Amino acid sequence: MIMDSGKPDAGDAASLGRRPGLLGRRSFLVGSAAAGVGALGLAGCQTTDGMSFAEASKLYGPVPEEKFPIPAVDISKVDPKYYRRTVAYETKEAPGTIIVDPANYYVYRIEEGGSATRYGANVGRDGFRWSGDAYVGRKSEWATWTPPREMIKRQPEAAKWARGMPGGLDNPLGARTLHLYQNGAYTLYTIYASSDPESIGSGITSGCVGLLSQDMIHLYNRTPVKTKVVVLPA
User: Fold this and answer.
1) For residues 35 and 176, what is the distance between their CA atoms, to the nearest angstrom?
2) What is the 3-state secondary structure (H, E, C) of 169-230?
3) Which residues form the L,D-TPase catalytic domain (predicted)?
């Protein structure tokens, strides 16, 4: 999967940056899974879930204060049902717990009073999905990404980053990463920041979970190390 900051640990990527002259994000999708949600025709200024186009544009606007300033999301490329929102969610899990629902492409952060903050996500493609309990063992900002040997064999163009790709807008891990652990060991799975709006609502990774950068920063800031993470069956 996608990997660590600072150390050349093996890791696979959902994607790489799209800037001209650089290796395309989708060129690093493992296998030939089709990704993307087509551009939506948003009638008028109201989205289907009641959020106005202006509200969504503000929610996913630029983040210029970052080490690498994050551009605004092209929200026309995201189905409005995947916009961040507070929803009713009954669970026995404690507030703060993160629940990943890969079947529906959502990540929930449990709140008080039977509610949750819901984020749209990309998830593992068929054959790479997993389920179970984990916890956040580490957190990284603008982490270094290192492709695993297996990925380099499949996609030789990744070899240029064999010693690590520095953090930045074109790095697959993006602005923030939550590294998932089980029983004291790193699972190689992460929840990471994606700058590809068309990936939201798709199964494209080799098991990691991606949120739009603005959503990932929102979740990251509210998630301490040791937070429980529940990944539901797909």
Assistant:
1) 22
2) CCCCCCCEEEEEEECCEEEEEEEEEECCHHHCCCEEECCCEEEEHHHHHHHHCCCCCCCEEE
3) 96-232
Strand 203-205 and strand 123-124: the pairing is parallel
Contacts of 185 (CB under 8 A, 6+ apart): none
Residue with tokens 């890969």: 102
Give the domains, in start order, of the chain with CATH numbers: 25-39+78-231 (2.40.440.10)
Looking at residue 125, what is its pLDDT? 83
3-state secondary structure of 156: helix
**All residues at 6 or more sequence positions from 113 whose CB lies less than 8 Å from its CB, including other chains:** none
Residue 20 has a pLDDT of 34
- Mean pLDDT, rounded, for 120-149: 90
Question: From residue 139, how far is each of 102, 177, 180, 218, 221 by CA, in Å?
Answer: 22, 6, 9, 13, 10
**Phi, psi torsion values for 136, nearest 5 degrees:** -80, 110
DSSP state letter for 52: B
Provide CB contacts within 8 A for 160, sequence distance 6+: none
pTM: 0.80
